[in-house]
Amino acid sequence: MLVLLAGIFVVHIATVIMLFVSTIANVWVVSSSSSGTISTGLWLLCNKTCNQLVVKSSDETSLKVVQAFMILSIIFSVMALIVFIIQLFTLEKGKRFYMTGAVMLVCWMCILIAVSIYTARFTGKTQYVTNPHHGYCFILAWICFCFSFIIGILYLVLRKK
């Protein structure tokens, strides 16, 4: 049981770190242009220098929603980690990890909303570029989506142990 808890704790910390990286770094979409490689994130557009990301006014709200939900997913993931540590030492067997699992599943839902909106609204819509493809931040966000779901379900299952 202790090994299982330690493993879940390590995966939870890895998920938090990957969420930070995927939200902060600006490599959600990578493409080529006549002036070199262009990477686009949630905040900046980087070529040789990074500038504020400019989107159409119709997509601005969608981008703000994606930014907000990615930040919320970080907050909920960190909150679930803190709640896990508190519940581990304060609650008795059979009552542990309900709250941790619930908070982690809320984190999972935030990631799902953010990445789905980004996929629907911003994939393949860049102009004057060739060969656009997803960057590592986009992939990390989907990995965090999977990990947070698995961790949330495991926390709910572990309440019985």
From TrEMBL:
Pfam families: PMP22_Claudin. One of its GO terms (cellular component) is plasma membrane. It is a multi-pass membrane protein. InterPro entries: EMP_1, PMP-22/EMP/MP20-like, PMP22/EMP/MP20/Claudin, PMP22_EMP_MP20. The chain crosses the membrane at residues 7-29, 65-90, 97-118, 138-158. Keywords: Glycoprotein, Membrane, Transmembrane, Transmembrane helix. It is found in: Membrane. Belongs to the PMP-22/EMP/MP20 family. This is Epithelial membrane protein 1. It comes from Piprites chloris.
